[in-house]
Amino acid sequence: MLVTPFPSSKTPPPSPATVVASSINHPQITIKHIDRRRILASLVASIAPFFAPLNHADARGLFQMPPVGLSNRYYLVRAGESEFESLGVINTNPVAKTSVDNGLSAIGKKQTLKAAFRLKEMEACENSCWIWPSITQRAYQAAEIIAAINGVNRSHIVPEYSFLDARGLGAYEGKTIQLVSEIYASDLVSASIKPPPINDGTPNESVADVFVRVTQLMSILETQYSGDTVIIVSPDSDNLTILQAGLVGLDLRR
Fold it and tell me: Can you tell me whether residue 139 is helix, strand or coil?
C-alpha cells in the first residue's frame, strides 16, 4: 500500500474526506520524506486502512510501537467538522466533549457521509466490523453515520471514554484554531513539550502523552480482537497522526 503525503499541518483548517493507505509489512515503502502531520493532520473524515496481518509464528505479547504486525485490519477516521471548529475555536476540554456544540456541523455531517460511503466502497465492513469512536459528540455521531451506511449493528459501536479524547491544548483552549501552528512548532523541537497549562480542567498534552494513550488503545484492541476489522473514529487529527506514525515508525516530532 502507499502512504500519501499531504499539505503541512501548519494550516489547520479541515479539508474534505481523503483516503490514505499504509502497511507496516511492506518494507519497500519509502517513508523518510513523510512527516506524521502530512499523513492526516488537517484532514476531516480521513480514512487510513492498515493491512498488516500478524504471522502465526509471532507470539501475541505486550504491544509495542512499531509492532511486528497487527492481528486486525484497521481504518482510522477523523470525525467531520464540529460546531466549535466551524467557528474557528479550539475546544479540547473533556468536560465539554459530549455537549451539543461538540457535535458535527452541517459541513461535518456531509464530510462524514462522504467518508462512510468511501468505507462502503472499500468494503471495510463487508464481513462485519467493530467501530470504536471517542465518546466525544462529533466522533460518536460520525460512528452512527458510518454504521448506518455500512449496515453495522449498533451493538458493534464501542464507545471509548478516554484514550481517544482530542489532544488537550491547555491555555490555547477557547482561542482561534489558527494558533495550533504554535503548538506544532513546539512539537518539532521535542515530542515532550506540553502546551502552557490552564486551570479550567483542560489537559495540556505533549505528543508523547498522546502517544501513550493511543498505544494503550491499540494494546486493548490487539488483545480483544483477532482477525477482525476495527474502525477507529477520533475527534481530532493528532490522535491519528501520532498513532499512524507509531505504527510505521516515524519520528513523532515531525
Answer: helix
pTM: 0.83
Report the run of H or E that residue 209 belongs to, with start and end.
Answer: helix 207-224
State how far the Cα of 25 lies from the Cα of 23, in Å rounded to an integer. Answer: 5
Q: Where are the domains of the chain?
A: 37-248
pLDDT, one tens digit per residue, over 193-243 is: 999 999 999 999 999 999 999 999 999 999 999 999 999 999 999 999 999
Quick: pLDDT tens for 42-62. Answer: 333 445 676 655 555 455 667
Instruction: Say how far apart CA 163 and CA 89 lie, in whole Å.
Output: 23
Task: Lay out the sheet containing 229-234: strands in order across.
Answer: 47-50, 73-78, 229-234, 130-133
Q: Looking only at Cα atoms, what is the longest distance across the chain? A: 51
Mind spelling out the 3-state secondary structure of 74-94? Answer: EEEEECCCEHHHHCCECCCCH
Q: Say which residue the cell 503541512 belongs to.
A: 8
State CA 55 to chain mean position distance.
26
Torsion of CA 113, 118, 121, 127, to 10 degrees: -80
Q: Given CATH 3.40.50.1240, say whether it is the number of domain 37-248.
A: yes
